[in-house]
Amino acid sequence: MSVSRYPVAIAGAGPAGSAVALALHALGVEALLLDRPLAQPFRIGESATPDVAGLLDRLGAGHALDAHLRYHGNLSLWGSETPRLDHFLHRGQGHGWHLDRARFDQALRQEAMARGVTALGDSGVDGIAPSGDGWRLQVRGLGEVEAKVVVDAGGRRSPLASRLGVERHRLDRLQALACHAPNHGGLSGYSLVEAAPYGWWYAAALPDGRALATLMVDQDLAREQKLDQPAQFLAAWRATRLLAERLPPPARLDAVHAFAAHSGCVARAAGRGWICVGDALMGLDPLTSSGISGALGDALAAAPAIAAMLDGDLAPARAYAKRADDGFRRYLAERRRHYRQETRWPEQPFWQRRAFAPAALAVPA
Asked: Which residues cross the membrane (predicted)?
């Protein structure tokens, strides 16, 4: 059986994986991009903060934001009974974007392929073992692949790093319970965030004219209160103040879709011949709206470290791990600060857990 050989194999073709492929191509490094199929067809929308445009320009992929909705700021009911509008212009920033995630991800993959990156759809890594000075992978749909460096861009499960025995720290059990509304109501241009005793709600307009309504709640609390069931989900939605006013709930729902939204990170960011990027490196609370920004930033930082690995130099990988550690520490401090601003339900489990959340967790090299 013939073996395909690439300097770099990237497991995961979401924004982080495609961005790594683009950044490596700019450095003259060939990579194989492996894209596994989605477990479910429902795609959760996502916000892109204003800094995403500059990151995409550095990758030569600014067009990936074409046809998405402008996002001007956040309307929130958090820590107070009075709604608050936080406009990006008040921070001296431009606008962000409300994304059609499937379209955004596809644009980045297609840009990578247009530049000659080999991408394999409906694939995944079924096995990995050391081979010479690199790795031998069992790739679904292709067979055996040899790569000197492997990149885990496979999301919050860190699937490739876990196969290498790298532990992942999980800080909470937050999940997103989501559905689409038939129209975006009074949400155009803004994200809406509303705290509740059991968690918090997020809603945003989508480019296709619909809206996304999402409840962020811990898995055990969702089960106990049956919030993952359409009837109770709708009842909780109707009981909101700001959300129900701006985005009235539909009369009925057929299903509520659940997605992982917990905070966590790998115990090691990189090692000899491997590196993690995006959610596979660290999963951030959706409250930060920084998932896309973080994925692109990781890719741009990881590419030089990967190129150095190919030459046997691990110093840039250690610097990359230090960057990840510093970033995750800042994130945890900010996360705890933001959750502590909500003091209306101190006895409720969701808020008690976050009041005593850790303020630091190392991500060593």
From this structure: none
The strand pair at 143-152 and 4-11 is best described as parallel
Domain locations in the chain? 4-169+266-329, 174-185+199-260
pLDDT for the residue numbered 185 = 78
Q: In the chain, which ranges are continuous DSSP H helix?
A: 15-26, 52-59, 101-114, 159-163, 219-224, 230-238, 242-246, 291-310, 315-340, 349-355
Helix (H, G, I), strand (E, B) or coil at 68: coil
pTM: 0.93
Please give the span between the terminal C-alpha atoms of the chain, in angstroms, as a whole number.
36
Assess contact for 323 and 301: CB atoms under 8 A: yes
* pLDDT recorded at residue 214: 97
Amino acid at 247: L
The gap from C-alpha 120 to its chain's centroid, in whole angstroms, comes to: 21
When computed from its CA atoms, the radius of gyration of the chain, rounded to whole angstroms, is: 21
Quick check: 122 pLDDT over 90?
no
CA distance 344 to 265: 30
pLDDT greater than 50 at residue 364: no
Beta partners for residue 48, in sequence order: 97
Distance CA 44, CA 180 (A): 9
For the chain, percent of residues with pLDDT exceeding 90: 82
How far is it, in rounded angstroms, from Cα 27 to Cα 21?
10
Ramachandran area for residue 138 (φ above 0: left; ψ -120 to 50: alpha; else beta): beta
pLDDT averaged over every residue in the chain: 92
**Phi and psi angles of residue 275, each rounded to the nearest 5 degrees, phi first:** -160, 150
* Pairing of β 211-218 and β 257-260: unpaired
Q: Which CATH class is domain 4-169+266-329?
A: alpha beta
